Amino acid sequence: MKLLIATFITFFLSATVYAENLPGGFVTVKEDQIVWKIAENGVKQTTLYGDPSKPGIYVVRNIFPAGIMSAPHSHDQDRFVTVIRGTWYAGMGPEWDPKNNIPLPAGSFMFHPANGVHFDGAMANDTEVQIIGMGPVSTTWIYPKEGHFGKPHKLSQ
After folding, report:
1. How many Å apart are CA 100 and CA 89, to the nearest integer?
2. Which of 132, 108, 106, 123 is nearest to 52 (CA)?
3. For 49-82, what is each residue's pLDDT tens digit?
4. In the CATH hierarchy, which fold is given to the domain comprising 2-139?
5. Closest CA to 152 of 73, 49, 50, 36
6. Helices (H), strands (E): how many in the chain?
7. Average pLDDT, the chain
8. Distance CA 52, CA 56 (A)
9. Can you tell me the distance from the alpha carbon of 97 to that of 91, in angstroms, rounded to the nearest whole number?
């Protein structure tokens, strides 16, 4: 389990962003400065600010290809999700049943409470989300053998 958590955190940290540090502590990241890392099943991930494995605030983005969702999992810290582009589908609980998804179009927001089991991603179109949280954060995958991202199908514990 610790290996899975460490792998997930390491993956988030491996995408490099070329941020510009400005006077007074301001930081900017322009779209052309974002470097995406390709994960399992074509999911793109990057860290815009901070470090999810260290204390402090972090900002990450994920782009889910159409039809791909995260497998059921939870995080040990609260997370705040904003849909940037597309329609993001969120489900709660361990079943990974796409019939129970809530569609959230661009501009929508969702709060994920610490230890809340959920799954989420894209259905018809590629979807980009931004996630803000406090580190360090760890992820627990409910069905580790399913992989982290894939096509949703009903599961049970």
Report:
1. 9
2. 132
3. 999 999 999 999 999 999 999 999 999 999 999 9
4. Jelly Rolls (2.60.120)
5. 73
6. 1, 15
7. 89
8. 8
9. 8
The residue count of the chain comes to: 157
CA-closest candidate to residue 63, choices 31, 29, 18, 95: 31
Q: What is the C-alpha to C-alpha distance for residues 51 and 54, in angstroms, rounded to an integer?
A: 5
Residue with tokens 């940290």: 13
Question: Both tokens of residue 69?
Answer: 């969702």
Q: At which residue do the structure tokens 């931004």 appear? A: 130
- Rounded Cα distance between 52 and 12, Å, is 8
Domains in the chain: boundaries: 2-139
Pick 148 or 156 by higher pLDDT.
Answer: 148
Token match 């900002």: residue?
A: 59
Q: What are the CA-CA distances from residue 139 to residues 26, 107, 135 (Å)? A: 30, 25, 11
pLDDT at 2: 46
Overall pTM > 0.70: yes
- For residue 52 the two structure tokens come to 């999810």
> What whole-number distance in Å separates Cα of residue 93 and Cα of residue 14?
29
